Amino acid sequence: MPAPVRAMATALERLADYLAVRLQRSVAIDDAHFRLLAYTSHAGEVDTVRTQSIMRRSVSGELIDYLNSQGAAKANDVFTVLACPSLGLGVARIGMPIRLEGTLLGYLWLLDSEGAVSGTDAAALRGAAGDAALILHREYLAGEVTRGRERELVRDLVSLDPTLRAEAADTLIEEELIVAGPVTALVVTINHDRGEPLDEQSRVALDIAVDHGRRNLPPKHALTLNRPDHSLLLAVPPGRRATSVEQTAEELAGAMHSGLVTGGVPATGACWVGIGATRQRIAEVHGSYREARHAADVARITGALGSTVPYLRLGVYAVLAKLPPDELADGIHPGIRLLLDSSLGHAELIETLKAYFDNAGDVQRAASQLHIHRATLYYRLRRTEELTGLNLSRGDDRLAAHLSLKLAQLIRE
């Protein structure tokens, strides 16, 4: 069975070709986000926007803002967008919104340089826009069915049941929802309380982020799943070499994180992307998913590993994150446990000790971070030694104290 997107593209291309012949001019069709869906050839001048749209299937945010300022998003009939050379729009556009029962689904575009639009031409545009709306609506419905099927299979693919995982992997390949090959899991999350679902704004932001990551890969090279507190992207990069697969995964993680920071993540939140180790078969990706979740959670909890974190670089945290809370608690030094007792009022000493370790024992930097004098920091460190029995000039004691603080972070979560 042909993929719905391919079928839609063929139908839209036929529509664009028909309209181009009827009007004797070039035609382009975008979706509601100004992503190119179909276009015809033309003999006239091609500006930068048309070239980028064809090559990248998308345009810049600045151009989108400009198009909307020209009335594109609110248009209900034929409208004109003036040229803006500074944005690469060297030729003015004549647009026709594609709407279905008032909902904007996309746009038909003509080049103003190819002549004015007559009344007959405008009528043809309206008719074509109506046809395009039906095509896009059918694609939406077909896509929803496909996405629902995909979500169901991906849930099984990362479940704890090995039988479900094997069946889901076989079905995904058989139904051509994903290609076979080395696969990597990426988990995206936003700052939140453990065990609590994300709010709607955060979930929408994550949905947009993984969709952005997906669009950086060829069709059938990615699967996505949204969970209450994170989103998952399963990526099958085109390259087969281990180095190229890992590089693609890190590039995807960076792109998703950047997208969240610049346009999606709530103002009060921070975000992280965990990257699991690559598996050679889709049936084995549940392991990569678990690793990606560990990496994202540990990065969120500790705040010390950066915003995009491969599981293979977690180091000792990879081991600690797998331990149950009671075993983690056993590893906390008794003296540090004393400081962590909130009823004793030692929060200031804990904050100082964290800053001291986070700055690799650099007293000047730690004092600057805490906005205190170095003498005050030295006093607090001495007080910490007195209360805990630790000697911070000894390597083993420093390690015990630092590790205890990290264990405490993991337990609190």
Explain the overall architecture.
The chain is α+β, with helices and mostly antiparallel strands. Helices cover 53% and strands 13% of the residues. It has 15 helices and ten strands. It has helices at 4-23, 48-56, 61-69, 119-157, 162-174, 200-215, 242-264, 285-302, 316-320, 325-330, 334-340, 347-358, 363-370, 374-388, 395-412; strands spanning 28-31, 36-39, 79-81, 93-100, 103-111, 184-190, 222-226, 231-235, 271-275, 308-310. The strands form two sheets. The protein has a five-stranded antiparallel beta sheet. Helix 1 (4-23) runs antiparallel to helix 4 and helix 13 packs across helix 14. The longest helix has 39 residues, at 119-157. The protein is elongated, with a radius of gyration of 28 Å. Residues 1-8 have low confidence and may be disordered.
Tally of contiguous helical segments: 15
Order of helices and strands: HEEHHEEEHHEHEEHEHEHHHHHHH
Helix/strand-derived category reads alpha+beta
Mean pLDDT: 84
Helix content: 40-55%
Rg, Cα atoms, Å: 28 Å
Instruction: Report strand %.
Output: 5-15%
Main sheet summary:
5 strands, antiparallel
Instruction: Outline the low-pLDDT stretches.
Output: 1-8
Instruction: Tell me the number of strands.
Output: 10
Global geometry: elongated
